[in-house]
Design a protein that fits this description.
The complex is a heterodimer of chains A (152) and B (151).
Chain A: H1 7-18, H2 24-31, H3 35-47, E1 51-58, E2 67-75, H4 80-91, E3 96-103, E4 108-114, H5 117-128, E5 134-147
Antiparallel strand pairs in A: 2-4, 2-5, 3-4
Helix pairs in contact in A: 2-3
Chain B: H1 4-15, H2 21-28, H3 32-44, E1 48-55, E2 64-72, H4 79-88, E3 93-100, E4 105-111, H5 114-125, E5 131-145
Antiparallel strand pairs in B: 2-4, 2-5, 3-4
The chains are: A alpha+beta (152), B alpha+beta (151).
Chain lengths: 152, 151
């Protein structure tokens, strides 16, 4: 079940995915709608779940979080209990920003945010490698990242 | 440099990015003018670089999420740039990351269903320049998605 949207909705989504601080009047002016008409469309996009909220974009390095590492993790044991135990334990680690269950080369993909490589090593050794059921681990250090607007 | 109040502000705002600056000030029990000033300063310093809408692609009918791990043919001098430029032309590519490690680039790609994915894979992905090796993983479930940084 997917939400039907038209060209004007797409234009609104494109604008909001660049700058979600804009109000309905400013958005309306850009897409040729009155403030109330723009506001109704934005509310419909929010109510239908297409607009899932906002996100602050922060410069990680300026905040002293210079290192982001993606870990691909293979579990040694794979029963349902093993998955649940692992997921619960890994989600509780503060430095782990994202956990995805994958189908393919490895079972889980983790995004780990750390101050520097030494800090990352500490998290890896003390928190990740000691998780229940962890098998093989592959690490890739993030150099650059861009989010694209997507098919709008 | 950031002080404790900047960090507290960013922490609180990250927890609930839908708050307007005025609502944020109220939630923190601070005068609205002071919060606006701090936000402006964080923007000027390049710490806060944007406020963006999060789009739920599933709600728009994109049910498949694929992660592509790519190794590039690096003998061509501009392989990286040419590959990235071509990847940006594919609308279904929602994330582009470059790495130091076994993988050079990761693309996050969305598709409506597996049939759509197959078409994308053949017509838009395998035709990207300088591919040496490519591996696809499918996201089964997102267990934790904390956009917030540990400040």
């Amino acid at each position: 079940m997917s939400v039907e949207i038209d060209e004007t909705d797409r234009a609104i989504l494109r604008i909001l995915s660049r700058d979600a601080a804009l109000g309905a009047a400013q958005i309306g002016a850009r897409v040729g709608l009155s403030q109330p008409a723009a506001w109704r469309r934005i509310r419909r996009l929010r109510d239908s779940g297409v607009l899932a909220g906002r996100r602050l974009e922060l410069d990680r390095e300026k905040l002293g979080l210079g290192v982001t590492v993606f870990l691909g993790i293979k579990l040694a044991a794979k029963g349902r209990v093993a998955l649940e135990d692992f997921e619960r334990a890994v989600s509780a680690i503060r430095e782990v920003a994202r956990v995805e269950h994958m189908l393919g080369l490895y079972d889980y993909r983790l995004r780990v945010v750390a101050r520097d490589l030494a800090d990352f090593e500490r998290v890896l050794r003390r928190r990740i490698m000691t998780l229940p059921g962890v098998g093989q681990v592959e690490a890739n250090v993030l150099l650059s990242e861009e989010r694209r607007p997507g098919p709008l | 440099m950031l002080d404790d109040q900047d960090r507290a502000l960013l922490r609180r705002w990250q927890d609930d990015p839908d708050l307007s600056p005025a609502q944020l000030a109220e939630a923190m029990g601070l005068p609205a003018a002071r919060v606006s000033r701090r936000i402006a300063r964080l923007q000027e310093a390049g710490v806060l670089t944007g406020l963006r809408a999060v789009i739920d692609w599933r709600a728009l009918g994109y049910g498949v999420e694929i992660s592509l791990r790519i190794t590039l043919e690096k003998s061509a001098p501009r392989a990286f740039d040419e590959f990235l430029a071509a990847a940006r032309e594919v609308p279904e590519v929602v994330e582009i990351q470059t790495f130091l490690g076994r993988v050079d680039v990761r693309l996050g790609v969305i598709a409506r269903d597996l049939h759509h994915w197959q078409a994308l894979w053949r017509d838009r992905i395998l035709t990207l320049p300088h591919l040496a090796d490519i591996e696809a993983l499918m996201t089964v479930a997102t267990v934790k998605a904390e956009e917030a940084l540990p400040l």
